[in-house]
Amino acid sequence: MTAALARAAGDLARDMAGLDLRGRIRLVEDRIPGRLVFTTSLGIEDQALTHALALNKGRTEIVTLDTGRLFPETYDVWAETEAAYGIRIRAYAPERMAEEAFVAAEGINGFRHSVAARQACCGFRKVEPLGRALDGAAAWFTGLRAGQSANRADTPLAEADEGRGLIKVNPLADWSRADVDRFVRENFIPYNALHDRGFPSIGCAPCTRAVKIGEDERAGRWWWEQESKKECGLHLHAPEGDVAPGQEAAAFEEPANAATSREHRRELV
Ligand code: SF4
């Protein structure tokens, strides 16, 4: 099972390499039977993927993890995306009892007390709901890119997720941030307004800040922790090599004109 999964993932990665984004998605949908799930964080990479999935009108489910601590701008782009493409993004929320127990024990912002407390918060707000979102899935689409951080430098187009028994598909793995920005701009894709305010990577509001010019894209996530600890448990990769400061720095390109984008999208759907 494990060897077969790894072989299937390797074959998929090889065959995806020469295709454009929509072609990569189509290949996965054609080749992998069973439930396919895309978990979007509503960040700019994921918006590019949502756009391609929506236009393909394929069979991949689009879901999100509503941690309860997201920025208002994230809820805004969520609603805007559903309206623009005529889709519903299914939300998975934390279990109420786990949330109440954590807040009672640690306080409302108790995730700042320690790495363990932060990981516990990410555990019940993200990891456990992710498990439910992926229940029975054969493949899991993500918007991960190799250039996002040192922790993600070895991200392939497709890989075996042995723990979950599925193939994890990262169709943007070999895209740069500039590629993503260009794709979003050229296709008039709605995106989170925070990206224009110095937030290249957007997670929960209390755990995300804007980055400075030259900082790593994910420097604004859990900025009070060491770099090697900065993953929420959804995408665990062993750190491998270093990304030099500024190597994949945030690209603050001209924002797409929002009004023009909305007009254009109306013609697409
Ligand atoms: S990012 Fe912060 S608020 Fe969100 S789940 Fe993790 S620790 Fe909790």
Q: What does this protein look like?
A:
The chain is an alpha/beta fold and 269 residues long. The chain has a single domain (2-268), classed as Rossmann fold (3-Layer(aba) Sandwich). It has eight helices and six strands. It has helices spanning 2-16, 21-31, 44-56, 72-85, 96-106, 115-133, 177-186, 258-268; strands spanning 35-40, 61-65, 90-92, 137-141, 158-161, 166-169. A six-stranded mixed sheet has the order 3-2-1-4-6-5. β5 and β6 form a beta hairpin. α5 runs antiparallel to α6. The radius of gyration is 18 Å and the shape is globular. The chain starts with a helix and ends with a helix. Mean pLDDT is 87; it is low at 237-269. Residues 67, 69, 111, 118, 121-122, 125-126, 203-204, 206-207, 232 line the site of iron/sulfur cluster. Iron/sulfur cluster is lined by residues 67, 69, 111, 118, 121-122, 125-126, 203-204, 206-207, 232.
Shape: globular
Strand percentage, roughly?
5-15%
Under CATH, the homologous superfamily reads HUPs
Q: How many domain regions?
A: 1
**Computed structural class:** alpha/beta
Spatial order of strands in the largest sheet: 3-2-1-4-6-5
Please state the CA-atom Rg, rounded to the nearest Å.
Answer: 18 Å
* CA(first)-CA(last) distance: 40 Å
- Helix % is 25-40%
Q: What is the H/E order?
A: HHEHEHEHHEEEHH
- Strand tally: 6
Distinct compounds present: iron/sulfur cluster
Number of helices: 8
At CATH level 3, the topology is Rossmann fold
* Average of pLDDT: 87
Which CATH class?
A: Alpha Beta
Question: Can you summarize the main beta sheet?
Answer: 6 strands, mixed
Second-tier CATH architecture: 3-Layer(aba) Sandwich
Stretches with pLDDT under 50, minimum 5 residues: 237-269
